[in-house]
Amino acid sequence: MAKRLKPASVCAHKDISDLAPRIVSDKLVELGVPAPKGSEPTLFLWFVLYMQLEVIGVKAKATEDAKWQDMKGFMTWYSDTNGHLLAENWLKRDTAGYLDSLEALGRKPSTINRAFRTIRTFVRWLQKRPGQPLVDDPVHVSMERRQQKREPSKLADPVMWGLLKAADNLVLTEAKNKNARPVRNRAILVALQETGLRVSELCNLNLGQYEDRYLRDVKRKGNRIDDVYVPKKARKVIEEYLTTERRKDDKGAAKGKPLFLSGRQGKSEGRLTRRSIATILDKLAAEAGKYSGGGIEIHPHMLRHTYGSKIMAKTSSESQTAEFLGHSSTKYTGMYIGLTKQEREDLLDGEP
Questions:
Q1: Rounded to the nearest 10 degrees, how much is the dihedral formed by the CA atoms of 328, 331, 334, 337?
Q2: Is domain 157-349 in CATH 3.40.50.1100, yes or no?
């Protein structure tokens, strides 16, 4: 990745022509975006400058990768269609044409809208730069595609009950199997159900972060850092895991090691991944299917939706539910009327 430029080194310039040789991005070359010739201030160069000043090292890695991909698609289309990447020729018709091409390829409205918002954010930044080349405003809010709102896919109570029973049953039946980790698997299921953590957040947890009924300094989406309360139901199964399977892995384990380890008991292979969490849940779903005649389908994010639905039912507040889920959007946090720490803990523990 190109070295991030300091804002001070850019402010001294009215345009980016003389900066062009320094603005080189291995990432864009790797993605196959057409590189500029010479030092002409093309869309390619302006976008790399935007990424270096506003995104790289500032936004979450997933956000950074999404912006690279969205603009790769647009710039490749723009170059193929116009025969160049000159920013001064970028009109509304270009942006609309690109979004239409995505629709013709069968892309979902949500995917098209994400690409449009990436382009729009870049344009609004570019319009504020000294010497910016745009002669037209190439974006308009009406370009967004309408999409049907749908309820998040959550797990019904009987299905959740079946998964928990399956986890309990495997703890009993696999107790002597050193290749299995049934206590860990149950702790993961209940932790996701009772805290609403994203799978990536759970995978990144370290042993030392579980402290005094909380998961401390959890790195959220958008680089937010939160303390996440662990309700009584989840604490019970996590602590059982810590005193049994986890203790066998490495006695006196360093706090910086993963909370949930992969591999066999006593022979840890390191940190779990999204794929390994999905495999664990698939195993629990297969076991639960024995009680319901089969057919249970689950993906990890459904547990987060289930948690969010529970909080919504208890609070009747979108803004408070967003806060519990760790959303960073000001759409919610601006309306948020905070609960006290004790009120939040009581709500999660099921106390009146």
A1: -90
A2: no
